[in-house]
Amino acid sequence: MAVKVSLKVNGKSVSAEVEERTLLVTVIRENLRLTGTHVGCDTAQCGACTVSMNGKAVKSCSILAMQAEGAEVMTIEGVAKPDGTLHPMQAAFKEHHGLQCGFCTPGMVMNAIDFAKSHPNPSEQEVREALEGNLCRCTGYHNIVKAIGAGARAMAASK
Amino acid sequence: MNAPLIGARIERKEDYRFLTGAGQYTDDVELPRQSYAAFVRSPHAHAKIRKISLDKARQAPGFIAAYTGEDFAAAKLGGLPCGWLITDVNGQPMKEPPHPCLAQGKVRYVGDQVAIVVAETSEQARDAAERVNVDYEVLPAVVDGSKARAKGAPQLHDIAPDNTCYVWALGDKAVTDAAFAKAAHVTKLDFINNRLIPNALEPRVANGSYSRADDSYTLYVASQNPHVERLLMTAFVMGLPEHKVRVVAGDVGGGFGSKIYLYAEDVAVTWASKQVNRPVKWTSDRSEAFLSDAHGRDHHTVAELALDKDGKFLAMRVKTTANVGAYLSTFASCVPTILYATLLAGQYKTPVIHCEVTAVFTNTTPVDAYRGAGRPEATYVVERLVETAAREMKIDPAEIRRRNFITAFPYQTPVALMYDIGDYNATMDAAQKLADVSGFSKRKEQSIKNGKLRGLGYAAYIEACGIAPSAVAGSLGARAGLFEAGEVRVHPTGSVTVFTGSHSHGQGHETTFAQVVADRLGMPIENVDIVHGDTSKILFGMGTYGSRSIAVGGTAIVKALDKVIAKGKKIAAHLMEAAEADVEYDRGVYTVKGTDKKKMFGEVAFAAYVPHNYPHDKLEPGLNENAFYDPSNFTFPAGTYVCEVEVDPETGVVRIEKFTAVDDFGKIINPMIVEGQVHGGLTQGIGQALTEGCRYDDATGQLLTGSFMDYCIPRATDVPSYQVDTRETPCTHNPLGVKGCGEAGAIGAPAALMNAITDALGVTDMPMPATPQTVWRTLQNKKAA
Ligand code: FES
Ligand code: FES
Known about the structure:
The complex is a heterodimer of chains A (159) and B (785).
Chain A: E1 2-9, E2 12-19, H1 24-31, E3 50-53, E4 56-59, E5 72-74, H2 88-95, H3 105-118, H4 124-130, H5 142-157
Chain B: H1 15-19, E1 35-41, E2 47-53, H2 55-58, E3 63-68, H3 69-74, E4 106-107, E5 113-119, H4 122-130, E6 133-138, E7 164-170, H5 173-181, E8 185-193, E9 205-211, E10 216-221, H6 226-238, E11 245-248, H7 264-276, E12 280-283, H8 286-292, E13 299-307, E14 313-325, E15 352-361, H9 375-393, H10 397-404, E16 411-412, E17 418-419, H11 424-434, H12 440-449, E18 453-462, H13 470-475, E19 484-490, E20 496-500, H14 509-521, E21 528-531, H15 549-575, E22 583-586, E23 589-592, E24 598-600, H16 601-609, E25 624-629, E26 638-647, E27 654-664, H17 671-691, E28 723-727, H18 744-761, H19 772-784
Helix pairs in contact in B: 9-18, 14-15, 15-16, 17-18
The complex binds FE2/S2 (inorganic) cluster (2 copies).
């Protein structure tokens, strides 16, 4: 049975005809063609699909599209300023080489931005624990941890 | 002229697109009239196929087409080829059973492809695939390599009796045995190098399309080497002319070896796209990736080291059974042989070595190269033996290594390699210092006071990278060349596009290669773009694996640059009215010796494309050169890793307190990127030793570790921040002096970590991964003994 969902994605109102079983990530990637949000697993373990929904980082592979009815969703495409300037967290990932293949990166950044809101000056251990739900196979986390610490401090400073 | 770019920490050019969601990975490619494929896979480890019924699938909503092995046989599609022929101890070729893209009469592992179903959406393709009815006659299965040759073991392939692919050996057995007979001490270990599942975070994807307009195919695929993929697919499987197939591997989300190979799915979607006359896309999900991506490692080894009374190594004897899985994957045969036994000298002057490898087929996913490929297995053998010998002989483990280090170069090992250069004492010195080894005993006392165990372990690894001289590889059985190609296209206004046959799937070539080019041409890095991953743009390529990109691919670019600069010199001589011999070049500026005349590279480029004042009698216009580079030797990165762990005897939990890596990668282009490669490699190596291990059920052959919930790739809390540093002995046989850095971490880390854990526990050996349960059990067994 097709159902219609309407939500706001990156500030724009959108709607899509979906099946009841359709996942939010499918709407984002396939209906809206916002392909920055990735799918790295089928057991809600990797975090590559992380987006912000109503201000909280969520795994969009674990949410039905119907559950996002009326929600405000932000994907990685909506993070930089409209003129293309990187968000401080994105800039920190670039500066600290917090990405290699880039596949985990959008999810990492979305999770990190949410985390930084409540942790303006996190310790290394806090950052590592915050990454519990995000897998990276390339970087060994070393530089991601550095980037998130620096990004959080930059976000706090720019407030 | 700009500041030197070689050796500079430059932020990566590719990052902006990855950070803003603008990367274009293969699954992001959506073609007009796209259709979607799903595969029917065997749920059994070993079974005969009695009958396949597609009737119900045909009635599924959105169904377009379905094909089975029968269709592929009727279309005369060949099987998947193996790219390396190993000759066994009796001079016979290895057994190469057919590896059909879709099963022909029999399935041989859980996940083996049985049928492809094409539908309007990916969900519909999956739904339809579930309605394919396959009638199986289940057969007994064998999954453990050590049991594959046992009497009465289930037989996989008629042409491979005793499930044996080959028995292969390297080294002089008689001389080795004689050296053992005279030894003052022999250390012997019997261990398993655990099977790993690579798990690049981007699952494999293949999107094939066919154009009736010009009878050509395009395959978008997550691949590490698109040209090789095309070559194998056209020449060996589909019988298509190479120029009618374009293979595009755009942004690829990690490979680690698993995306080197030609897979059945790639062929199937390409072939199906012609049948249905629409593009056909297959996107693996993670569960499928666990079953169908080539696995890594899986050795059972008995290894012995013979020493004299002073701890000098006299000989090494190694016997390995390598489980290659159900079929030979693209490079499966060379990994446990050529890339393994040749590394058993390590950093040491061991005068004689003998290694025998038996490769066996089992009812498991095919095994092939995974980050390090053979070299982690070799390093594990050597470095576990050396450390154990030191403990048994009560010699300091660093000291025993120093007593045996190779110190004079070039050095011919007894296992066929010629090391060109290295300084193993330098990396050992630096690592000991950085790891504060001298403070270890104090830290250990403190741990003991806290009721904990503490241990320290070394690994002094070596690897052979930059594979390889083609002639040598060919004589060892390689069925392909191993050179690399590059093209430097200078545009009229002086900016540059470089085309490389190397492929970047996280390594940052768009930055590193651009640094090399911009440095030589004296221009800002923004003026250089690197293009890779498309057979229609790049002249040729052997792709990226074996840490070969900078050493082989980078050198090809440098060779092409040399040609550009040389032609530019002729043009500059003409423009400055000087003799060519008097023109000098340095990073973007042509000058005439003894004068103040100069021409910038950009002016020369412009003259080449607007040749009004130009030496037409001697030169063609334009500035575009390419080069193929075939290395004269491998490169030999080496280093020392020191790992310090604390173990909680109550829970068996191992905490890595400190991990120090000092590597010699030769010259370094971008230290930031190199460090990142080391961090990533170390983490995969730590994964092997601490958290990762592929398990099959012995009785049924079912994969027990089929998701991230039971196959644990390290998370951020499992690993520490690393201390990394480098020492530099420039490679002697390539112009950049580079050696490669992609695999080192994965090669050295497992041995260092297991040496540390066994030290903490006070045991000789224990299996990987050292999960809390395994550690705890090992401690209980020790207590009981
Ligand atoms: S795709 Fe959502 S957690 Fe892996
Ligand atoms: S950068 Fe490749 S998975 Fe994280």
